[in-house]
Specification:
The complex is a heterodimer.
Chain A: H1 2-27, H2 30-33, E1 38-51, E2 57-58, E3 72-73, E4 79-87, E5 92-101, E6 111-122, E7 125-133, H3 156-159, E8 166-178, E9 181-192, E10 195-198, E11 201-204, E12 209-219, E13 222-232, H4 240-248, H5 252-260, E14 267-279, E15 282-293, E16 300-310, E17 315-327, H6 340-354, E18 359-372, E19 375-386, E20 394-395, E21 404-415
Antiparallel strand pairs in A: 1-3, 1-4, 1-21, 2-20, 4-5, 5-6, 6-7, 7-8, 8-9, 9-12, 10-11, 12-13, 13-14, 14-15, 15-16, 16-17, 17-18, 18-19, 19-21
Helix pairs in contact in A: 4-5
Chain B: H1 2-13, E1 23-28, H2 38-45, E2 59-61, H3 68-78, H4 82-94, H5 107-116, E3 120-125, E4 133-137
Parallel strand pairs in B: 2-3
Antiparallel strand pairs in B: 1-3, 1-4
The chains are: A alpha+beta, B alpha+beta.
């Protein structure tokens, strides 16, 4: 991907230079002025959040290693992004987006999240190739653009398990009028390039292949979607000690358990359905998802959320509810606990498997205030209520974590 | 009778608040575009599907940012204020999908662009419609 990117930056530099040199010619040609070839835009969020529990870190999603643990912090929601668009002609466009946010290595190091060419041979077909945002769920490819949505952050019970933001690959979108509305079909294929933090480890997602698609129906104020995505993990989860121990026993059931816990080349399947209603001052969203896992290490889960908002002048109060629940995998090593080393192995396996369990619900309420054009201030309260064993969506939970926390957030979102 | 007169006076103000002229959606007369439905106009201006029923690609043109005409048009079309329209475009632009309608500096430029582009479509004050343009939708009256 690196040579590809440097070409992009050269193109961008070139376009900047070109823009300077042809500028005088544009002045007396309003037609060209209206469609500048090059545009630079940006987005950002300045946010503070405080989770009431000091027994686990509240994070925006699993790409963050830590977040708020009873203290105010700016790292959960604050971010800054810049995007350059270059139009080669009416059909071909290049887009590069660089964003800085709190990430897996505890830094705000900027990352190229998008770098692609978009080709629209006609109004109904759009093809993109390069580094593209992933869209496993509706609205998932605009999660960083706080200004574009109502809540402080995408509902965590729904979006937390999606730590992947981009893929290197391509997608195709076909739009067809189907009276009285529009049908959209999208298919994508790509390879992941990101890493995610797991306790003190980093799990390398890069090389994981993914593909999927969705069908949309848009009519009037309604948008309906059904989608499917599949991810094939490239690398194993860093639990080789336990799996090695199981294999060393030589017991067939333990060896089978070690294999069942492997992740490499196993797939996760994401199914989702959603509907958005947006008319006048009313906005409503309802989404459901079901994730199944081929590896016994990860629990399959179901999640959903609903959001209702009503705008009154420049204020938009909203109320939402989300729920996520995973089901434990039946996996036994067949090793008797009576033998102390076996008991230790069994304990290790159980401890690892517990890490992916989640069973919690969140009630959130807030208000968005559109202060001035392109600037919004949001205040939100999240009431997270889960089982004590619901640990997968937090980081660094202590044994005293009881699954409950209240999160207060204040953000300033802007685009420029 | 006095009451009747008052109601009449009140009613006469309703269609065009504050004395502003009527907003109409116009296309280049050479485009051959006939009447459009509200849904079709929404699809074109919100970037969902920019094609006329004839198959001709549509190129929507916006009035300048901050112009009362622009705010009134989107209010009439989808009952949204400009902050919501901006938020909508932030999502589409930063997810690399569609760009907003063409930007302009003044209403004269809108007319110039309409005249120079076969697929051009814009919203203007009814008073500025001449023979080079054809009215394709009237958000005040059409469904």
């Amino acid at each position: 991907m690196r040579p590809h990117l440097s070409i992009f930056f050269r193109l961008l530099l070139l376009s900047l230079v070109a823009r300077q040199s042809v500028f005088p010619a544009w002045a007396d040609e309003p037609e060209e002025l209206a469609t500048p070839r090059f545009s630079l835009r940006g987005f950002g969020t300045l946010g503070m959040a405080r989770s009431s529990s000091d027994q686990a870190d509240f994070v925006r999603d699993l790409s963050q290693p830590d977040g708020s643990r009873g203290q105010w912090t700016g790292k959960v929601d604050s971010l800054l992004g810049v995007q350059a668009n270059y139009r080669f002609d009416d059909r071909l466009e290049g887009v590069v987006q660089v964003a800085s946010r709190y990430r897996y290595d505890k830094s705000f190091r900027p990352e190229v999240g998008w770098a692609f060419l978009k080709y629209d041979p006609d109004p109904g077909l759009s093809l993109r190739a390069g580094r593209i945002g992933t869209e496993f769920y509706m609205l998932a490819d605009s999660r960083l653009i706080g200004y574009s949505y109502l809540p402080v952050r995408p509902p965590t019970d729904y979006f937390t398990p999606l730590p992947i933001y981009y893929m290197n690959g391509g997608d195709a979108t076909l739009t067809v009028p189907v009276a009285p509305g529009l049908a959209k079909f999208k298919a994508f294929y790509g390879v992941a390039g990101e890493k995610i933090p797991i306790a003190d480890w980093v799990w390398d997602f890069s090389g994981s292949r993914m593909f999927g698609g969705y069908v949309d129906y848009l009519q009037g104020a309604w948008q309906w979607r059904l989608s499917y995505a599949q991810l094939r993990f490239r690398h194993d989860f860093p639990i080789n000690e336990v799996r090695g121990g199981l294999r060393l026993t030589g017991v067939p059931s333990a060896i089978a358990a070690a294999d069942a816990l492997s992740v490499a080349d196993r797939r996760a399947h994401y199914y989702s359905a959603g509907v958005v209603y947006d008319k006048g001052p009313v906005q409503a969203q309802l989404m459901f998802s079901r994730t199944t896992q081929e590896s016994a290490l990860f629990e399959g889960s179901s999640a959903g959320y609903g959001l209702l908002a009503y705008r009154v002048s420049s204020l938009t109060p909203y109320l939402g509810f989300s729920r996520v629940r995973s089901s434990a995998n039946p996996l036994t090593t067949g090793l008797p606990d009576a033998v102390p080393p076996f008991a230790a192995l069994n304990g290790g396996v159980a401890a690892i498997m517990r890490q992916t369990h989640v069973d919690q619900r969140t009630l959130f309420a807030g208000v968005r205030w559109d202060v001035r054009p392109n600037v919004a201030v949001k205040l939100q309260w999240d009431r997270v209520r889960g089982e004590p064993g619901s640990v997968a969506f937090q980081q660094g939970e202590s044994p005293a974590w009881n699954g409950r926390t209240d999160v207060l957030s204040l953000t300033l979102d802007f685009v420029f | 009778m006095k009451l009747f007169a008052r109601i009449l006076a009140l009613l006469s103000f309703l269609p065009c608040a504050a004395g502003a002229g009527e907003v109409v959606v116009v296309a280049n007369a050479a485009s051959g575009v006939g009447r459009l439905s509200r849904e079709q106009v929404v699809n074109i201006f919100l970037g969902r599907f920019r094609q006329f029923p004839s198959g001709l690609p549509a190129e929507p043109i916006d009035q300048p940012d901050g112009s009362p005409l622009k705010a009134r048009f989107y209010r009439l079309l989808v009952d949204k204020d400009m902050a919501e329209i901006n938020a909508y475009w932030a999502r589409l632009v930063f997810s690399g999908r569609t760009l907003p309608p063409l930007k302009t500096e003044n209403s004269g430029e809108v007319l110039h662009l309409l005249a120079s582009r076969k697929g051009g479509i814009a919203y203007v004050d009814r008073a500025s419609v001449d023979q080079r343009l054809t009215i394709v939708f009237s958000p005040d009256h059409d469904q």
